[in-house]
């Protein structure tokens, strides 16, 4: 589950990570109120208005703007809220901005220069360990740094049995070229950041930029956070952070029905039990010369109700020209699935206007095929993998 910047910062602050402070506003008038409140709390008179969407690169797309007085706050917030913000990380048509973060300006001049660093904590799946990735080259072009000058990106691997060690945090501060108070602040920052990552069951915390202010404080100016969905049952407070307006409606609906569904671009809808078989089925569709319209794992209990829900979800995609059902009857009996398909079909009747190919393999497969063939419905059945591929081809050619 992805979070908004302001939510990520809220988690960070609760673990003692210093952040660029800000308040959320839903419209221009509210932005002005929040700016006044922020001045009372922080003393700031300049503000940064930041679009809150689930995508990075907002600065490049015009979603992060400096406001030097309340009139500018009103004008800029008014422009950003409601806009379709296009960044390198959004879909081509952009993402609608519903609210902004009115934040304190932290790039004020002072005794020393400001510096922007990059830092992220993430799970290295190959090593089975958490890792802190960091660089002196923070800011808006970190992707380019990674591509052209990868030696400027450092990694610190964390041993899960002992956690982040003091010497590791100090090595990070040292490699970032810090000294004096900024060095000490960075050590504290890294330690608190890692505790926030572990404590919230996240799989990624990306802070870009981490800022060294002109008075040598270290703070998180941005926060991109992904919490592991499998941990939401014990992170109830953060589960509330879910913003459904940022997710594809069809995926939200499938998720609510307990179906594992991912929307794709092709024309052949698929309904499969088991993630491995679903992947193989997508290969099968490609092998037949077509592209899958979705990934859909109906899980172990492919009963009539679930089959019907899955049908409805697949058919909401206007690109679907055929549906391939590929079920292995291991725990579930094929004849029961077949009955489910037939029942769902007769319940939905006119709503289904594309050819359906059903392949059932495993317990009672022959019985299942018989059931479908005798149902009198225009459902094509198959037993072998190849047969199913041929049927898809025939149906779409
Ligand atoms: P992103 O573009 O989505 O990654 O959004 P960020 O939160 O990282 O902001 C983009 C850029 O805006 C940062 O890299 C900073 O250079 C700039 N920025 C952010 N906060 C401030 C601020 O308080 N003052 C000034 N002058 N610039 C800021
Ligand atoms: Mn950023």
Written overview of the protein:
- With 397 residues, this protein is α+β, with helices and mostly antiparallel strands.
- It has three domains: 1-20 and 109-247, 2-Layer Sandwich (D-amino Acid Aminotransferase, Chain A, domain 1), CATH 3.30.470; 21-105, 2-Layer Sandwich (Dna Ligase, domain 1); 248-396, Rossmann fold (3-Layer(aba) Sandwich), CATH 3.40.50.261.
- It is 37% helix and 24% strand.
- Strands 7, 8, 9, 10, 11 and 12 form a six-stranded antiparallel sheet that branches. It has a four-stranded antiparallel sheet with strand order 1-6-2-3, with helices on one face.
- The protein is elongated.
- It binds guanosine-5'-diphosphate and manganese (II) ion (MN).
- Guanosine-5'-diphosphate binds at residues 20, 48, 50, 56-59, 64, 66, 105-107, 139-140, 208-209, 221-222.
- It catalyses: GTP + succinate + CoA = succinyl-CoA + GDP + phosphate; succinate + ATP + CoA = succinyl-CoA + ADP + phosphate.
- Pathway: Carbohydrate metabolism; tricarboxylic acid cycle; succinate from succinyl-CoA (ligase route): step 1/1.
- Residues 9-236 form the ATP-grasp domain.
- Pfam families: ATP-grasp_2 (PF08442), Ligase_CoA (PF00549).
């Amino acid at each position: 589950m992805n979070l908004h910047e302001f939510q990520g910062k809220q988690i960070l602050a609760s673990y003692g990570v210093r952040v660029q402070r800000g308040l959320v506003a839903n419209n221009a008038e509210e932005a002005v109120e929040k700016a006044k409140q922020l001045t009372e709390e922080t003393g700031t008179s300049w503000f940064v208005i930041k679009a809150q969407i689930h995508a990075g690169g907002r600065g490049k797309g015009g979603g992060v703007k400096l406001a030097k007085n309340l009139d500018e706050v009103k004008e800029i917030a008014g422009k950003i809220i409601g806009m379709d913000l296009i960044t390198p990380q959004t879909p081509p048509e952009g993402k609608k901005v519903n609210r902004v973060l009115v934040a304190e300006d932290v790039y004020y001049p002072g005794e020393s220069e400001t510096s922007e660093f990059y830092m992220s904590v993430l799970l290295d799946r190959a090593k089975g360990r958490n890792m802190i990735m960091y660089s002196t080259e923070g800011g808006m072009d970190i992707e380019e740094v990674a591509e052209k000058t990868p030696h400027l990106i450092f990694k610190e691997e964390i041993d899960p049995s002992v956690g982040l060690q003091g010497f590791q945090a100090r090595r990070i501060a040292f490699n970032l070229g810090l000294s004096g108070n900024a060095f000490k602040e960075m050590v504290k920052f890294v330690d608190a950041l890692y505790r926030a990552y572990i404590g919230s069951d996240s799989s990624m915390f990306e802070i870009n930029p981490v800022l060294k202010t002109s008075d040598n404080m270290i703070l998180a100016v941005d926060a991109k956070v992904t919490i592991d969905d499998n941990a939401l049952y014990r992170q109830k407070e953060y589960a509330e952070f879910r913003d459904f307006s940022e997710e594809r409606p069809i995926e939200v609906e499938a998720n609510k029905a307990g179906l594992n569904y991912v929307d794709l671009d092709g024309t052949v809808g698929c309904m499969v039990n088991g993630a491995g078989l679903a992947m193989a089925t997508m290969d099968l569709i490609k092998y037949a010369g077509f592209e899958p319209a979705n990934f859909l794992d109906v899980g172990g209990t492919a009963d009539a109700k679930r089959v019907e829900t899955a049908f409805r979800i697949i058919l909401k995609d206007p690109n679907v020209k055929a549906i391939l059902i590929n079920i292995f009857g291991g725990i579930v009996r094929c004849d029961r699935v077949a009955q489910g398909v037939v029942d769902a079909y007769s319940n939905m009747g006119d709503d289904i206007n594309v050819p359906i190919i059903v392949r059932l393999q495993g317990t009672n497969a022959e019985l299942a095929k018989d059931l479908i063939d005798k149902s009198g419905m225009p459902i094509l059945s198959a037993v072998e993998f190849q047969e199913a591929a041929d049927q898809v081809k025939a149906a779409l050619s």
